[in-house]
Amino acid sequence: MLPEKVARSADELRERLDAGVLSRLGRVELDQGVTFAFEVAVRIALADLDDLSSHQQRGEYVSAGRWRDVAEEVERLHGLAMVRA
User: 2, 53, 74, 84 - which has most CB atoms within 10 Å?
Assistant: First the structure.
């Protein structure tokens, strides 16, 4: 399950994405040295979050570890977005 704080962070990232703010934030590393445009990285993290939520809504099992990984990525990107904006 997604903590409320992470849900708020995801909502704020969606708002900034819709406003076009994230396209100006350069590049960010996602995993093992792979970098993406900040906007793309946020889209990936939010898509992962939406995917997990869809599985849960259908009653499918999602491991706590997977929730944690995605939540940590959303929080990390949110923190960076606040600093870079």
Answer: 74
Closest CA to 38 of 11, 15, 20: 20
Between CA 22 and CA 49, with CA 8 as vertex, the angle to 5 degrees is 75
For the entire predicted model, the pTM comes to 0.91
The DSSP result for 9-77, as a single string, is HHHHHHHHHHHT-GGGS-EEEEETTEEEEHHHHHHHHHHHHHHHHHHHHTT----HHHHHHHHHHHHHH
Domain ranges of the chain: 4-84
Q: Rounded to 10 degrees, what is the CA torsion of 45, 30, 74, 56?
A: 40
